[in-house]
Amino acid sequence: MAGGRAGVADLRGPGFLNSDPTELKAALAREARALGFDGIGITAPGTIESAGRYFLEFIASGGHGDMEWLAAQPERRIDPRGLWQDVRSVIMLGVNYGPDQDPLAILKQRTRAAISVYAQGDDYHDLIKKRLKALARWLVATAPSDVKVFVDTAAVMEKPLAQAAHLGWQGKHTNLVSREFGSWLFLGAIYTTLELPRDDAEIDHCGSCHACLDICPTAAFPAPYKLDARRCISYLTIENKGPIPHEFRKAIGNRIYGCDDCLAACPWNKFAQEGREAKLAARDELRAPTLAELARLDDAAFRALFTKSPVKRIGRDRFLRNVLIAIGNSADATLAAEARRLLEDASPLVRGAAVWALGQLLPREEFDAIKPAAMDGERDEDVREEWQVAS
């Protein structure tokens, strides 16, 4: 690695600026890999027009659900120049987070929680943004220019841009697929005023395969390459702020944060590699925690367990809502005690989910016996409705 960095340093200065731009691109790629990026590609800002049209159709259909931030100022998202008019090149970067075990195996352990692979380690936003800033500083020092960095927190269509930059292609599940890393790439972007050599767009290699569509528990794909987020378990357990609609609760199983089914089903994962970044690797305590221990988390314990984790952003109440849905799906009557205790929780969202869980686990006579007393003092309409639906 030291030799690689020395090679890059030798290229700096006025002599380098006057050389072939392909040398700058090659040096940029070496620096990116030295910083821990696993993939890099470059595209022009005007290469995702068709993706922009699909995005506007997606918003018009209401498929984004309550994610109003997606619908806000769409012109800033469908063309990088709408976000920053001076951008001349878009540098797309990927970090592999391939798991070290089958992400679907946990779904058979019904008393344990399934947390999406990307959320079992440290929050990727922090890690990747630091690397993006370091690479951007190198670029500015090497070839003076203006830059902006983004990692999944701004109006940037990362996946279409990544396909345009040859990092992979958007599969029928709308996620990026890489021939080298399968489904497991975190993406980041650097916008720059430099004119850099472009990569050819990656072509679609899905062929006739539809494994990702077939495995979806909630039929969230109305057609290949189209997603209805309102039916997606990742949306329902993360972005959705209210009660989870009844029609999806059984299908959620023990997934308490996100869903990896469509990603894990992709045959291109046979080429996937285990991620090399220790901070993104799964923490032992988040691989397969028991639903019982998670149900006992108060706010302080929740924050402590999920320090530096993306899970923390949904808050303890939504998290326990998800845990209680999983408890209701567990078919383990011993977990009814956890749900019953949470009938007294301060959050109506938690109390409502506890009602549903008890309705799934308790014999009808026992459930009916606790219902009147519980409803008498209940003022929240959503919770009362849960009791009525469970009748």
TrEMBL record:
GO-annotated cellular components: cytoplasm
Source taxon at top rank: Bacteria
Enzymatic class: oxidoreductase
InterPro entries, alphabetized: 4Fe4S_Fe-S-bd, 4Fe4S_Fe_S_CS, ARM-like, ARM-type_fold, QueG, QueG_DUF1730
Annotated 4Fe-4S ferredoxin-type domain residues: 197-226
PROSITE patterns: 4FE4S_FER_1 (PS00198), 4FE4S_FER_2 (PS51379)
Subcellular location: Cytoplasm
Active-site residues annotated for this sequence: D152
Main localization category: cytoplasm
Binding-site positions, [4Fe-4S] cluster 1: C206, C209, C212, C266
Pfam families, sorted: Fer4_16 (PF13484), QueG_DUF1730 (PF08331)
Binding site for cob(II)alamin: R77, D152, L176, L187, S234, C259, D260
Pathway linked to the protein: tRNA modification; tRNA-queuosine biosynthesis
Cofactor binding note from Swiss-Prot or TrEMBL: Binds 2 [4Fe-4S] clusters per monomer.
GO molecular function: 4 iron, 4 sulfur cluster binding; cobalamin binding; epoxyqueuosine reductase activity; metal ion binding
Function: Catalyzes the conversion of epoxyqueuosine (oQ) to queuosine (Q), which is a hypermodified base found in the wobble positions of tRNA(Asp), tRNA(Asn), tRNA(His) and tRNA(Tyr).
Assembly with partners or alone: Monomer.
Family matches, as PANTHER family: EPOXYQUEUOSINE REDUCTASE (PTHR30002)
Family: Belongs to the QueG family.
Protein name listed in UniProt: Epoxyqueuosine reductase
Species, as recorded: Bradyrhizobium cajani
